[in-house]
Amino acid sequence: MRRAALGTPLGPFWVEARERVITASGWGEAPRRTDDPLLTEALDQLRAYFEGHRQVFDLPLEHGRSGLSASVLSALAAIPFGETRSYGELSRALGAPAQAIGQACGANPLPILIPCHRVLGAKGLGGFSAPGGVEAKVWLLRHEGAAGLLI
Predict the structure, then answer these.
(1) Quick check: is 116 catalytic?
(2) Whether residue 7 has pLDDT greater than 90
(3) pTM of this prediction?
(4) If 39 and its partner were Cys, which of 34, 135, 145, 151 is the partner (CB 3.0–4.6 Å)?
(5) What CA–CA distance (Å, rounded) separates 20 from 37?
(6) Confidence class of residue 148 from pLDDT cuts 50, 70 and 90?
(7) Catalytic residue among 116, 120, 140, 141
């Protein structure tokens, strides 16, 4: 396992690699320098995303999930930049209870890279794993131009 981080407007954000794939990401400290080409590329793409220069990630991701969780993560990955879906929409599309969709979103091992922040509740924003929780989710949605959905 190799890990490296960068500073973001939401605090330090790390990515983790095993072999030739990115397997996890999240908020917190990790070494800021790396000589690993995959981690360097991941940090460069994340930096470009936070600076507003990238909308899609082009990285080898392996989330290690199966069954419904894997289906939910695939559905999340398909939500375009600047768009959102509701837990209910994903529930209907995947034929699973909205609560199970929410649990799979909450257990996303690759936040930002697999955009769980693009999923909203029917009557609210839903939760989010970043420091600041929902405020971080709002920041990301505004950053992506989806703020009109919050009004």
Answers:
(1) yes
(2) yes
(3) 0.93
(4) 34
(5) 10
(6) low
(7) 116
